[in-house]
Amino acid sequence: MSDSVMLSVRLPADLASRLETLAGVKDRTKSYLAARAIEDYVAAEEEFFARIAEGEADADAGRLVDHEEVSRWLRDLARGKRRVPPQRGRNGRK
Predict the structure, then answer these.
(1) Residue 94 Cα to chain centre, angstroms
(2) Could you give the CA distance from residue 84 to residue 29 in angstroms, rounded to a whole number?
C-alpha cells in the first residue's frame, strides 16, 4: 500500500502551462514537481513558525535586546562603523 495521498489542486492556466513546460524540461512528472514545491513550502513555513515560537519564548523569558541599543547599532552600521551587535539579556540588559 502506498504512503502517498491524492490531492487535487486548481491552478491558473498560465501556471499549469509553466509547470507542464518545466516537467518536460526536467523529465519529471507535474505531480513530482508539485509535490517537491509543496514540500519546500511546508518546510519553510514550519521553520518560520518555529522561529516565531522561539522568539515568543525568549520574550516571555525576558531575553530581549533593547530597542534603542539596536537602533544605535543599525545607525552606526549604516554609517560604516562596524561594532559587535547588541546581545540579548534578561529584560534587555546584559
Answers:
(1) 29
(2) 49
Pairing of strands 89-90, 63-64: antiparallel
Contact 72, 56 (CB under 8 A): no
Q: How confident is the model at residue 92 (pLDDT cuts 50, 70, 90)?
A: very low
Alpha helices, DSSP H, located in 27-91: 30-60, 67-78
Q: What is the mean pLDDT of residues 40-54?
A: 98
Question: What average pLDDT score do residues 52-57 get?
Answer: 96
What would the pLDDT profile of 11-36 be if each residue is shown by its tens digit? Answer: 999 999 999 999 999 999 999 999 99
CA proximity to 68, closest of 93, 46, 50:
93
Torsion from C-alpha of 76, 77, 78, 79, nearest 10 degrees: 50
Q: How far apart are CA 45 and CA 6, in angstroms?
A: 22
The position carrying cell 513546460 is 21
